[in-house]
């Protein structure tokens, strides 16, 4: 594992063990350079640099409180960095105004949170609809059942989300990503609240998205999830 480890002190997480797919997809989507972030006197990371390619799954690890979620939030333009730049498709997203940030989150980004971030008082299908409403007219929306089949929820589109178990809700969140087809997926402890089987479904669906050309960052404490990724970036170590 050590040869695929990079640290925030080591500055650059150059992919040393890219999987075949990542090599094939190859092209760099995200170039993070010299990222620095503090809250008050507390420095989370300093001069952190890494590249992320289409097709690559990058595990983001570090002790609790080391700033993994904060880094994901910075990559998702939900939070700002103190210093450094994050180029996505060559554009520095740290300089985005509110309008550009919203468009970036709508068109490029897929977020997978531990708390699922679903509309609980709506059906599974309505939740998938919401994900696509702003980006695709109804006649260009895919057959949701294919995505639901993929996550083991085939034929259940009319069920209310609040009636689902935690694992099922996370699988709805996954289906939402699958139909949205973002270029960049940021997953924050996506298996944290799940049993092994549901965890495996999440990891394999993320892998499939990477194989389709998506770049995936997974913040995790789970060794199996780390092992399933192509590369590892450690913060705060
Ligand atoms: N808006 C904020 N204002 C002040 N401090 C914050 C803010 N957001 C996060 N922090 C602090 O920054 C540190 C890093 O938080 P973060 O959630 O990014 O860590 P993490 O590595 O994801 O932790 P965990 O593994 O426990 O989820 C924590 O000490 C947290 O309390």
Detail the topology: elements first, then pairings.
Blueprint: E1 5-7, E2 12-13, H1 20-25, E3 28-39, E4 42-53, E5 57-61, H2 68-75, E6 83-88, E7 91-92, H3 98-107, E8 109-112, H4 124-133, H5 144-150, H6 166-180, E9 184-188, H7 196-211, E10 215-219, H8 223-228, E11 231-234
Parallel strand pairs: 1-11, 2-4, 5-10, 5-11, 8-9, 9-10
Antiparallel strand pairs: 3-4, 3-6, 6-7
Helix pairs in contact: 4-6, 5-6, 6-7
Quantity of strands, as a count = 11
Query: What gyration radius follows from the Cα positions, in whole Å?
Result: 17 Å
CATH superfamily: P-loop containing nucleotide triphosphate hydrolases
- Compute the number of structural domains: 1
Q: Report helical residue fraction.
A: 25-40%
Low-confidence stretches are 1-24
Which distinct ligands sit in these coordinates? adenosine-5'-triphosphate
The H-and-E topology, N to C, reads as EEHEEEHEEHEHHHEHEHE
CATH class: Alpha Beta
Number of separate helices: 8
Q: Mind summarizing the main beta sheet? A: 6 strands, parallel
Mean of pLDDT: 85
Strand order of the largest sheet: 1-11-5-10-9-8
CATH fold annotation: Rossmann fold
Which range does the strand content fall in? Answer: 25-35%
Give the helix/strand class.
alpha/beta
């Amino acid at each position: 594992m050590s040869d695929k480890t990079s640290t925030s002190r080591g500055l650059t997480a150059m992919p040393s063990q890219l999987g075949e797919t990542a090599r094939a997809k190859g092209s760099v989507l995200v170039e993070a350079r010299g990222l620095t972030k503090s809250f008050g006197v507390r420095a989370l990371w300093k001069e952190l640099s890494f590249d992320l390619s289409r097709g690559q799954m990058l595990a983001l690890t570090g002790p609790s409180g080391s700033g993994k979620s904060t880094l994901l939030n910075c990559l998702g333009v939900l939070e700002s960095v103190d210093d450094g730049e994050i180029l996505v498709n060559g554009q520095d997203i740290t300089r985005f105004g509110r309008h550009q940030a919203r468009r970036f989150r709508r068109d490029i980004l897929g977020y997978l949170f531990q708390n699922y971030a679903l509309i609980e008082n709506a059906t599974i299908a309505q939740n998938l609809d919401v994900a696509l409403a702003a980006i695709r007219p109804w006649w260009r929306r895919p057959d949701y059942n294919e995505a639901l089949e993929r996550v083991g929820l085939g034929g259940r589109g009319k069920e209310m989300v609040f009636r689902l178990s935690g694992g099922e809700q996370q699988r709805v969140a996954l289906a939402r990503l699958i139909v949205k087809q973002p270029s960049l997926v940021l997953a924050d402890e996506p298996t944290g609240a799940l049993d092994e089987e549901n965890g495996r479904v999440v990891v394999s669906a993320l892998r499939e998205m990477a194989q389709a050309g998506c770049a995936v960052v997974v913040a995790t404490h789970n060794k199996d999830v780390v092992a399933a990724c192509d590369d590892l970036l450690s913060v705060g170590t």
